[in-house]
Amino acid sequence: MPVAQLLQHNEIDKAAWDACVEASDQRQVYALTWYLDVVSPGWQAVVEQEGVVYTCVMPLPVRRKYGILYLQQPLFCQQLGIYARQELRPEQAKAFLALVQQHFKYTSGYAFCTGNSAPLQSIKQEELQPVYTLYLDLNKPYEQLWKGYNRDRKYNLNKARREKLRLTPSKDIEPLIGLFRQNIAHKVYGGVDEAAYDTLRQLYTACVEKGIAELLYTLTEDGSITAGALFLYYGGYIVYIFNAADSSGRKSNGRTLLLDDLIQRNANTPQTLDFESPMIESIAGFYESFGPVPAPFYTLKYNHLPLPLRLLKQARQQLLLRL
């Protein structure tokens, strides 16, 4: 029986790792080594192996602050978790969790993938909190998918089509970053660090090299870009990884047009559109109008730091909230 062990970054066999993720039922782009190298440099892992074959893996996005190692979900990476060649057993998941909590005394939030929900459901730990994203099964005719849109979405789609917007593919991520920076960044709690945009640039370049990225913009009749969306195709999922629009794009329902176009082109294929929906009512409501279903997953949050450090952490959080 293989035993789970913690591996440092330089101890990970990346070819064996990617082969395990590829063969797993939980198969997700977020867990591939080249993706993790961009969003969480120096990541560590819990690994089970038989000989040179990795049979079960769990990436650990490690950060360091005040000399303390802790886990924090990276940007552009809604889910991680445990990826297993065979069906993941609850006791196996429990052993992985125990090893993580043994080595890391704090996590600000670690998200397990939707494919881990069933085995984690039987583990009664208050540190595991249920959340959800939204999945739309595209393996249906477009007419059937369109019928799943709610009345407002159908109305706004028809309105968007009357705006005579052009959809155009692109290889240039900068206009999308510009749209986000100018129209959305100021609404993000705590602001957006410049490093986040650099990470997105690196990630986009890597995804283009792997042939899994699709970047689309809406253009007005005079050629102005008003909305954009980046999608990643991997493992039977199309991930709506990043998007932005200016006031004109919002008014003309540019993102509605972009999503509907993607749904049309990928209808009747064995793929699932993952909206990467946050649990923010206004955003989730927009995505729900396309007819997806909630897909539950679990996040792990705990603080087992010594009492003085716990109190320091709490005081800092309260100060940030007041500011």
Automatic annotation (TrEMBL):
User: Domain BioF2-like acetyltransferase, which positions?
Assistant: 154-267
Q: Which GO molecular function terms does the record list?
A: transferase activity
Which InterPro entries does the UniProt record give? Answer: Acyl_CoA_acyltransferase, BioF2-like_GNAT_dom
Record's keyword terms, sorted: Transferase
In Pfam terms, one family for this protein is Acetyltransf_6
What protein does this entry describe?
Acetyltransferase (GNAT) domain-containing protein
- The scientific name of the source species is Pontibacter chinhatensis
